[in-house]
Amino acid sequence: MKVLVPVKRVIDYNVKARVKADQSGIDLANVKMSMNPFCEIAVEEAVRQKEKGAATEVVAVSIGPAQAQETLRTALAMGADRAILIQTDADPEPLAVAKLLQAVIAQENPDVVIMGKQAIDGDNNATGQMLSALLGWPQATFANAIELSAGKASVCRDVDGGIQNVDVALPAIITADLRLNEPRYASLPNIMKAKKKPLDITEAASLGVDLAPRLSVVKVTEPPKRGGGIKVETAADLVNKLKTEAGVL
Amino acid sequence: MAVLVVADHDNASLKDNTHKTVTAALALSNDVDILVAGSGAKGVADAAAKIAGVRKVLLAESDSLGQGLAEAVEALIVPLMANYDAVLTPATSQGKNFSPRIAAKLDVAQISEIVEVIDASTFVRPIYAGNALETVKSSDGKKVITVRATAFKAAGEGGSAAVDSIDAGPGAGKTTFVSQQLVKSARPELTAAKIVVSGGRAMGSAEEFQRVIDPLADKLGAAVGASRAAVDAGYAPNDYQVGQTGKVVAPELYVAIGISGAIQHLAGMKDSKIIVAINKDGDAPIFQVADYGLVADYKSAVPELMDALTAAGV
């Protein structure tokens, strides 16, 4: 069983995003970039599926600038077998990403796609579902457990208020939620080994997909700041303030 | 233009997220219809018909719609979009599951989790975990939008729209529903609660979390939340998680106990009306957003708070 894992290079999870002074976007100059945390979980899951014999090959794919090769090397160091970069300096929207992935899938013919539920930059939570709809493959989003077997995947999904179990016929799209696993740190020998694993680069423009954005960014601003509050001395003071000043009790 | 709102419900009752999404829809157009996709959901449709400002309610019923399977909901809605210029769905786990599929089938962008409507094609949405607000203008003919319900006031009652039953569509195809386990709780739902009490990693164990947080929540009639650190450590279940990777809440009162206030947590609660923080570290970032801060160990502060609430007649 072949698993395709799309991964995205984004601002590092621990770095606070800062709005550019001209309100044109987020300042990413000289900011640490890493693999999107949900993509890391997806890579880890694919590698674990291979380690337990359910999958035979793990292919990582990223859509982004030349530097996304670093993100793909991370996936290779975690255990992916090979990698594909669909290179573009544009910042394609989820719909365009889904179409590019559709083109990759037409060439690679994976049995299952495991990908993060959301990227922590655009916070759209859309690409996996769009890809599923474009391909006509079933989807299981927000997975916290995945069992692959012949012709199907049994997925436990995180839903509001609890969990839902679904079976999807393969090929299928599965998106990873936070509880699916805890990604490993790549060991130094595996990082060295990853440098020798195959990484193919294809120009996005060669795939015949319309990358033109559908949304134009009017401005990006900082959210309104909360006014500073006060410190109270005792629990009784707190209750008194909540009752008389804030009026919320 | 005409706008379709997809109702949030559990087949038995209509959720308040629907009323809030109707408010967002009415900012786009006066012609707002509601779709109730479910099974045995006539009562939900009747409740939706009472929302003020709604033109009519469409009711589609089948097993796969009742199970909320994304493929079935999408297959129902896409043909309906011939009659609508926009579809708005509350950004719940269910809405996020099917809405992008509709966008892909219509070959348009999804505008995710809007918090403000500027005009019929311009919207504000949080990006980077709420660290920035992006104003976007859509060039697509039809708009597919998910709505962060906490950012909008609930539309009132008093409407009397007609309920039309419609065909349920072709079903889910290659996805099969197996089972569902929803947590039964006497407490209010986290995203709809007026008061939320959340615990953090300082609790140290699941037992301690329940011992400290649960009684305070029950005293206040509050929902229980948790920081990601507490969830990752196994002190609280995942669906308690408030933050960028969990639920976004905006209650009247948010009480953070033993929570340091990581960016990812603040993204999920900073729009609360009043924030209270109890933490023994006076330099914890949570105090920068708290209206009322109490620098104290929760072990002594929470019992004192319980006593003070009792003394105040709460």
Folded structure, characterized:
The complex is a heterodimer of chains A (249) and B (314). Chain A is an alpha/beta fold and 249 residues long. In chain A, 28% of the residues lie in helices and 31% in strands. Chain A has 6 helices and 13 strands. Chain A has helices at residues 37-51, 68-78, 94-108, 127-135, 188-194, 235-246; strands spanning 2-7, 9-11, 33-35, 57-64, 82-87, 112-116, 139-149, 152-159, 162-169, 172-176, 199-203, 215-221, 230-232. In chain A, the strands form 2 sheets. In chain A, strands 9-8-7-10-6-1-4-5-11 form a 9-stranded mixed beta sheet, with helices on both faces. A two-stranded antiparallel sheet of chain A has the order 2-3. In chain A, strand 7 and strand 8 (152-159) form a beta hairpin. In chain A, 49% of the residues are buried. The model of chain A has no long low-confidence stretch (mean pLDDT 96). In chain B, helix 6 (206-220) links the parallel strand 12 (195-199) and strand 13 (223-226). The model of chain B has no long low-confidence stretch (mean pLDDT 95). In chain B, 28% of the residues lie in helices and 28% in strands. The longest helix of chain B is centred in the last third of the chain and has 15 residues, at 206-220. Chain B contains 9 helices and 16 strands. Chain B has helices spanning 16-26, 42-49, 63-66, 70-80, 93-106, 206-220, 228-232, 263-269, 298-311, and strands spanning 2-6, 31-38, 54-61, 86-90, 110-114, 116-119, 122-127, 132-138, 143-147, 162-165, 175-182, 195-199, 223-226, 253-257, 274-279, 292-295. In chain B, strands 5-9-4-1-2-3-10 form a 7-stranded parallel beta sheet, sandwiched between helices. Chain B has a 5-stranded parallel beta sheet with strand order 13-12-14-15-16. Chain B is α/β, with parallel strands linked by helices and 314 residues long. In chain B, helix 4 (70-80) packs across helix 5. At the A-B interface, helix 3, helix 4, strand 7, strand 8 and strand 9 of A face helix 4, helix 5, strand 5, strand 7 and strand 8 of B. Strand 12 of chain A pairs antiparallel with strand 8 (132-138) of chain B.
